[in-house]
Design a protein that fits this description.
Blueprint: H1 3-14, H2 21-32, H3 38-53, E1 59-64, E2 67-72, H4 77-88, H5 94-106, H6 111-118, H7 123-131, E3 135-140, E4 148-152, H8 154-160, H9 171-174
Antiparallel strand pairs: 1-2, 3-4
């Protein structure tokens, strides 16, 4: 059994981004409470590469971005393309986007406040946003009945590629100047 190789393989597999040799060395040294030579780590990585080069595996280990990570082999590109196309169809509905916008700009906000702004029931949209983990329950309001308060989650930030709620566009970003396009009005030269 390749004890070191198995641990390295597990680290490469669970890492969200390519894991660097230094990170592997640091983890292994802490794990074994002893210095693990870099050449042993590279040897283990080479054995892992050889193992996954076999056609029985649909993925392989690749060195890129300064580190190592698993990628599927090009022979499986067609099936992966179909999956990604199907997943892209699972975008947010207009109703969910409207509800999410209200939550993002007004948070913490109750469901009744959302419904007052939208003018329709928001139960389904809120439920879908909770399932997708784009919003989360932030607590309870002090109002009568102590309704739940909703706000955006960390996943919301990642989904829209922002680091802070301050990065959200402001209403003035959407406003157009009067007569920006079209015929000039009286008094314009």
């Amino acid at each position: 059994m390749d004890f070191l190789g198995n641990h390295i393989e597990a680290l490469v597999f669970c890492s969200e981004k390519p894991i660097k040799i230094e990170e592997l060395k640091s983890c292994m040294s802490e794990m074994f409470e002893a210095d693990v030579p870099e050449k042993d780590i590279l040897t283990a990585l080479n054995r892992i590469e050889e193992k996954y080069a076999d056609d029985q595996y649909p993925f392989t280990i690749i060195k890129s971005g300064g580190g190592y990570h698993f990628l599927t082999k090009s022979a499986y590109q067609a099936s992966i393309g179909i999956l990604l196309k199907q997943q892209s169809k699972k975008r947010l509905s207009t109703s969910a986007l409207e509800t999410l916008s209200i939550i993002a700009y007004k948070q913490p906000v109750t469901k009744s406040e959302m419904e007052q702004i939208r003018g329709v029931n928001c139960d389904y949209a809120v439920q879908k946003l909770l399932e997708k983990e784009l919003v989360e329950i932030k607590g309870k309001s002090e109002n009568v009945g102590r309704p739940l308060l909703y706000g955006t989650s960390e996943k919301f930030m990642d989904y829209f590629g922002i680091n802070s709620l301050k990065d959200l566009p402001t209403p003035k970003d959407f406003a157009t100047e009067e007569n920006e396009i079209g015929q000039p009005t009286e008094g314009d030269s």
